[in-house]
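Re: that chain you flagged

S.,

Sorry for the slow reply, it's been a week of failed gels. I finally had a moment to sit down with the sequence you sent. For the record, here it is as I used it:
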Amino acid sequence: MDISIVVPLFNEAESLPELFDWIKKVMLENKYSYEVIMVDDGSNDNSWEVIENLSSKNPEVKGIKFRRNYGKSAGLYCGFEAAKGNVVITMDADLQDSPDEIPGLYKMITEENYDLVSGWKKNRHDPVLTKNLPSKLYNWTVRRISGIKLHDMNCGLKAYKSRVIKSVEVYGEMHRYIPVLAKWAGYKKIGEKVVQHQERKYGTTKFGLERFIRGPLDLLSVTFITRFGKRPMHFFGIWGMIMFILGGGVSVYLLVEKVYRAINNLSYRNVTDQPLFYLSLVAVILGVQLFLSGFLAELVSRNSADRNHYLIEKTI
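Prediction finished late last night. Pasting the structure tokens below so you have them in one place:
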């Protein structure tokens, strides 16, 4: 199969028939073999009934229905698990991503050998203050931290080699950082393509202010997990050692200084009368706590087998 198109969705019943007709038109024009995997993330409208109706008339449409709302990352994770195409393309269901971009993305993967190609909505049709400016700040921050030169890291329209999406684990809110996860998994040929951005036609945006808080926290999590997820003791241990040596060294210095002055009949203060002693004591305690945190993190990292367990109500 040439292409799997994964569409996570929440309350997008009005958009789905038009989206599928558009995808089907592009696929037929380019003679691609394909499947469309629609993942209903616990919608409370009739999105699932629409998916069932589409699937009954079009064998290319597959469906996964969550029993409740888990978020976009969960939808992508289960869609990636089910995908069988050599190239996997993700897009949002709100008709703001254009299926006309699929042939260009497909060629960049198959002919230019990119591992991942991310869409860049250069001309956005979103509110400036609530989406465009935060998006620019977010993308600048991620570029500085990850070293990946993408202008629109969070664009829903992306294309992947199949082995890329089978190699990364998306959970929580990590869908924003799939290029970062892919890079640290060893897939370094990451490209970008300017894509059309349509105005929303149906429904309302799922954008929430909580993303301003979750986004930076997710980025810290991705950075920490990808670098130290398999060896957390390397992070906690290094900082614990630094704090312990610093605090212990200062304590020893204070003791040696007191002994020296006492032997040479020089004036001196008791060690416990000096604020520096208590600061060094705090540093030693912090060092020990960081060591213990490292040991606990090592134990936790070995008990995450059900991290991506989701309750699926139906599949087609």
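What I noticed first: The first strand starts at residue 3 and ends at 9.

Talk soon,
D.
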